[in-house]
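Lab meeting minutes (informal)
Scribe: AK
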Amino acid sequence: MLTVGPVEWNEAARDAAKTLRDNFQSVVVMGVSMGGALAIQLAATSPQLIDGLVTINAPIFMGNSSFASEIVASSADPYLEGWNVPSFFGEPVEEISYPKRYKKSGADLYSMCGLARELLPLVTSPMLVVQSILDPVVPKASADEILARSGAPSKEVLWLEQSYHVSQLDLDRDRIIAAALTFLAAHDL
């Protein structure tokens, strides 16, 4: 991921959405964490490709000045020291992207947050926002702001109480699946 960033991720997401649109009647994008910020950007900039949007613990801001400071701090080490493995309510699951993070990926995360936040008013597809209330990575207020700023004509929220940031791997995973399926059915997607 050191050679690509938000511009390339948006291009790849748009290309994938075009392929889906060419082959399926409905296209619903679901994004987890930074993927949720990417999904917001895609829905805002390519509304003709997206019929529905689901975000899970999506950041549009981080609210973490020590994390931001570590990203730009002068250091020979390209890795973020404060990056930890995720916490779980239930049995821990190995999450392969967490052991080490480059400072560049942290800076890319902040870029993705800002882009998603600015584009939220342009989202016109129905939206389900899923957020763990005890998420130590993405503040609950991020979901509140997504709901407030989104231009989606229909928006719903699912607050999770039995998971932290990687809720799709924790005790709330079945609630996420059930809520997403209910959301899809309610919007004929």
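Next up, CB showed the second protein from the same session:
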Amino acid sequence: MRKHIIFSGKNECSMAELPVEPLADTGVRVKTDLSLLSTGTETIVLYQKYAPGTHWDNWVKSCNPFLAGYTVIGTVTEVGKDVKALSVGNRVVCRKGHGTEHMVADANECYLVPDGIESVDAVWFGLAKIAFMGVHAGKVGLGDRVLIIGGGPIGQMVTRWCAAAGASATVLVDMMPSRLGMATKGGATAVIGKPVDDAKDEILAAFGGLEPNIVIDSTGNAKVFESALGIAGKYATVVVLGDTGTPSAQHLTSDVIGKGLRIVGAHDCHTTTEWPEKRITELFFSLSSAGRFPMDGLLTHTFAASDFRKAYDVVETDRASTMGVIFDWKKL
């Protein structure tokens, strides 16, 4: 049997015993070392912060049981007979949930972690990939003025991608002071500790008197959408990256037509043939190795996997103190 954290109802989670999956010829078996808690997605699901009939509702209902988590790092313990690129003992990351030994994944969905990258940094690859989809959708490039609303884990990853992409100014707005310093370390040219609706003067000043030509909402807060439209410059792009559980509460404003805004949604599943997950992950590792994707200071909490309940309680009740929250599966 293998152990896995599952959600069985509102505010109901447990460590379940699940059958060991057979190993396919193209698969690998991985023993999990660490898994990264997705503070947005997992709390929305666990505490059912979504409206009936939404894509969140349909997704959760389609999963029985609902296996929590989606980004792990571990060690290959067995390979299928057709696997050539990976070997026993390799350190890999893959998009699997919070579970322990005997986890099975397709070899093509496991990515070798380069030497020199710490496991506590490499395990961010899944959130880095999601953030990349937002930056890619916004077509961030050289000279752009990017406003990022929200400095949580996804917002922090967006900040780093924008810096790597060559944005001339990257400004992050968030109410939580602890997040501002993290964003500065990640390449933000300015940070503002105010609600975005109260920060227009500071935002314009940070962009040299100009409005942002790209706004990325990473919050998942439905009410922020109107604020993003309001602060965007003429002909700007507004990227909806934070995935709210109540999309009916997101409202268009006259800014869309008045300023000729382009609105684009970005999601984890929006990979393309040009940018598959493998290429994005390899770029994340390459930039990290070169010191162009700084991760220092993002890890705030490490819990023994057996303390999963405590971890979710801390994330829900003291979000301001949390950023990177990791389960250590060597301490089960």
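CB comment: The two ends are 14 Å apart (CA to CA).
No objections, moving on.
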